[in-house]
Every structure is written in structure tokens, then in C-alpha cells.
Amino acid sequence: MDWVIDPPETPALPVRGSAAMFPVRRIYCIGRNYAEHTREMGGDPDREPPFFFQKNPGDIATDGRFPYPPKSADVHHEIEMVVALGSGGRDIPEAAALDHVWGYAVGLDMTRRDLQGEAKERRRPWEVGKAFAASAPLGALVPAAEIGHPAAGAIRLTVNGAVRQQGDLGQMIWSVPEQIAILSEYFTLAPGDLIMSGTPAGVGPVARGDRMLAEIDSLGQLEVQVV
Hints:
The protein is of the alpha+beta class. It has helices spanning 35-40, 113-121, 127-130, 144-147, 176-186, and strands spanning 12-14, 21-23, 27-30, 52-55, 60-61, 65-66, 75-77, 79-85, 101-108, 111-112, 136-137, 142-143, 154-159, 162-168, 194-196, 204-205, 211-216, 220-226. The strands form five sheets. It has a six-stranded mixed β-sheet. Strands 6-18-17-13-14 form a five-stranded mixed β-sheet, with no helix packed on it.
């Protein structure tokens, strides 16, 4: 096929213990999926229908560096377990949802909180606060074939050695199978899709020079320097 311009590179994630790469198609994110984080953001943690937003595949960063973005003075960290789909479809039954999961990773949903807050006040979309370059630092994928499907386990983030976020995957309001099933009611999911499954309480600002260390049981660590 002839192209009028050179096709962009395919965003991809490394796979732990392999030279192969996992191509990324879309990035879905669930909002306020841990009760204490919902409270700290001024919400009600009752099980109301979940809501989702997206980041761009090109927002992935895998080099351990997070460039502090422009137009913001209040950039926050949010540690999340990332779910990578190896197959997809529409109206996926919850009971079959995990059959579509290829693997899991440690990730960060970096957020220009001040710009997100302005968008909320004006009832505008959140992309300016959520979907910017390098806003999704991600670690290597760990195949579900090796570790199964984590439904519980410690999730923790430190900044310069001080604990900021700490919780357990079992505290999710909406489980991973529920997220997949509900998302597939609205979108046709496909191989290469990622789901960022929510963050526990303790989100807060970072500054240039900070070192973030994100850890999830069975998935390892992700170290990211703010530059």
C-alpha cells in the first residue's frame, strides 16, 4: 500500500522475560474505582454505574521518565493495574471476561489536576488533563498465563521514598471482569486494548526531580523519574 505520509510507529509495551512486544490499540480508564479515592475526589463511593475516559496510545511512556507537562502547575500521580486484552468483542459476558485478558502491568495515570478541575467546572471533556504526552508511564506486561488473574494484592506508590498511595486490588468497586463486560456494551473491544483499572486513595502532586516507585504484588515495580 502507498501512503501519502510515513505511517506512525505502533505504540507497544515490552513483555517481561521476552523480546516480543505487545501492540497497543486503545487505552480505556475507569474513574473513581476505589472507595477512598472516590471520597478524596469529593464523590460518593456507592456502586453507581462506572464511567470511563480514554488516553491516547501515543501517550505511553516506557523509558522510566516523565517529562513535566506544560500549562500545568499541579500534576498528580495515580498508580493503577493495567489490563491488556488479547482478544475482544461486543457484549462480553462477565463470566467469560477474563478469557480475553492477555496480561497485566503496573501503570501510572498522570493527571494535570488543575486543568482537569477547570474542565469539570466548565462541564468540558477531560482530555486536556488526562491525555497528554507521556501521561501513561507503563511497566512491562506480565502474561496472565504465568500469574493468573490478580483479584487481590498490595498496590503501593512512593515518591522519594515516602508512601503516598497504598491499598489492595481487592478494594476495587468494579472488578476487572465487570469493567470488561460493561466496556464491551459501549465499545467493540479488540486485541491490543488496555484498561487502566483505577487508583487507590492518596493521589498527590509531583515536581521535577521526584522519583516515583509504583509496585503491585506479582507484577513487580515501575520506577519513574520526573524530569
